[in-house]
Amino acid sequence: MMVESASETIRSAPSGQNGVGSLSGQADGSGGGAGAAGTAGGGAGRDTAAGADSNGEMSPADLLHFQQQQALQVARQFLLQQASGLSSPGNNDSKQSASAVQVPVSVAMMSPQMLTPQQMQQILSPPQLQALLQQQQALMLQQLQEYYKKQQEQLHLQLLTQQQAGKQQPKEALGNKQLAFQQQLLQMQQLQQQHLLNLQRQGLVSLQPSQASGPLQTLPQAAVCPTDLPQLWKGEGAPGQPAEDSVKQEGLDLTGTATTATSFAAPPKVSPPLSHHTLPNGQPTVLTPRRDSSSHEETPGSHPLYGHGECKWPGCETLCEDLGQFIKHLNTEHALDDRSTAQCRVQMQVVQQLEIQLAKESERLQAMMAHLHMRPSEPKPFSQPVTISAADSFPDGLVHPPTSAAAPVTPLRPPGLGSASLHSGGPARRRSSDKFCSPISSELAQNHEFYKNADVRPPFTYASLIRQAILETPDRQLTLNEIYNWFTRMFAYFRRNTATWKNAVRHNLSLHKCFVRVENVKGAVWTVDEREYQKRRPPKMTGSPTLVKNMISGLSYGALNASYQAALAESSFPLLNSPGMLNPGSASSLLPLSHDDVGAPGEPLPSNGSSSPPRLSPPQYSHQVQVKEEPAEAEEDRRPGPALGPPNPSTTGPAEDRDLEEELPGEELS
DNA sequence: ACTCTGCTAAACATAG
DNA sequence: CCTATGTTTAGCAGAG
């Protein structure tokens, strides 16, 4: 038990480095520095974004309420007018309605506030209603447009200033800022859409496509910002509710629950028009919704959902010869229906997941850079909007997408170290980076694609790489040649200079006691003695004082205990960080699993096909520890073995013993 | 300045 | 003899 918790704390130490973003606060010492920087960054970002947001002055909910109020007012006015037999000359609509109106005085005298829309409908004749609606529609649209225009101006202003400021900052920072702004923009669009929906819902706006394309055409379409999902689906369930309550009491609360259901109809409108690439105000904003999306071929005459001659609608891939055909296809196959909306929804989730991922990774990068003192690394606002979205992400147990987006996220950009370490080339003595390799499997897992393709020297020591290679296999043993293969398979860098690094590998295998050569039937294989490996690690863990401290304190109680904890820390933590786990959505469900897998450090990398079922995990782990017990190198264990022995079993408990039993026979084979 | 660690190079040994 | 595999030594460099 105690061990468990202890290992937890240890685990947190490396995490301070690796998962800086989230756990920054954890690490003390130097790690703490990085963490502090990271958090500071986040905070600043939040501020900035908050500022951007607050520029709106009105929250979506507020705006909606305001509009509802307006609608009510108009309605009241209308009723009053009708009741008093006055028809306002300025109101062209009133012409038709005036004659038809026979509003019971009793009703008219009722305070209009008491009227629900339904009541109004009962009271008013269709023509009257229509007139009313049109009137309101016009009014609201005007208001909306004014509001959004203002918003956009502000946004653009901000964007400009930010871009200028951003020039001195790292590209990615700028990119992120832009992203933030794009998101804001999208958010705005979403807002508009949402309002439209609300109007629609309230029956205040009829949504004939034709009509919608009229004055409303600038409102919805294209990008549905995932960030707004919650909003969208929650209806106006925004934080500030007081106004809403009052509105509801006034009777116009059609929205409430219905919202959730109806709002769903929103996205669909997205599909039909292809001409709408302009932004809300018709301004050809610089910020195209998905300007740097994968579809670079997005030429003027193209459609975001059309590329390489096929429909890019998720899961569609229908071939279309030309744009026209595609559009036809789009309108027929992906019209506004349940399926399309559902797909749209899923896509939103996907995007949202990606954005969350991006935010996390960015944050981590910042923290890493800060920690490395690579740059001033001012706090970047970028992560902010995403952060918000992340916070909101699944507010109300919305259908978490079947993790659709979850797993596939494979960051393909250079690992944390940034350009500095990328000068790979020559006799890179990037040992320093070894600090960061503590959670090697995590780092590897996350950037595995990157290393695989980029000719960049991995920031890991040969020893750790070899270990990783070995541990990745089901039986945690490899021949020299297999190790070579692993290197070349996993790292583009090791496809060159073979003589050099192979020599180094051999050298390391021989040199380090942690690598144990085991004679096999068909030759010799190499295994890892975790205990030895961990034993020599502590001094290296400069990056995480916490860990070192723990190790030291642990040593005082029992050397092995500490090293064992360290082993635990290293072997288990990375898994929590493995790509799949990064997704908040899936994390919760996966975590338990990962915990089980703790024993299999190699796990994260699927490449090897290794991995035996999870059940192996506990055994696996002890297995590693157990390796030392191999008869082959009994000599090594002798010294530390006995002394360390006692504490060890106590921690691992029976598992280890069991493993011993399992292992020994196998080993004795040789 | 010293030590530790890691990398590279190279010499050497051994087995197939 | 050649090659693959291991072992060992030496020098250099970065970091604490």
From TrEMBL:
SUPFAM superfamilies, per the entry: Winged helix' DNA-binding domain
Acidic residues: compositionally biased ranges: 658-670
Stretches with biased composition (Basic and acidic residues): 289-300, 626-640
Listed GO CC annotations: nucleus
Biased amino acid composition, Polar residues: 1-17, 607-625
Molecular function in Gene Ontology: DNA-binding transcription repressor activity, RNA polymerase II-specific; RNA polymerase II cis-regulatory region sequence-specific DNA binding; zinc ion binding
Keywords of the record: DNA-binding, Metal-binding, Nucleus, Repressor, Transcription, Transcription regulation, Zinc, Zinc-finger
Compartments it resides in: Nucleus
Occurrences of domain Fork-head (ranges): 457-530
Any Pfam family hit: Forkhead
DNA-binding region: 457-530
SMART domains assigned to the protein according to its UniProt record, in alphabetical order: FH
Protein's name in the database: Forkhead box protein P4 isoform X3
Organism in which the protein naturally occurs: Hipposideros armiger (Great Himalayan leaf-nosed bat)
Gene from which this protein is expressed: FOXP4
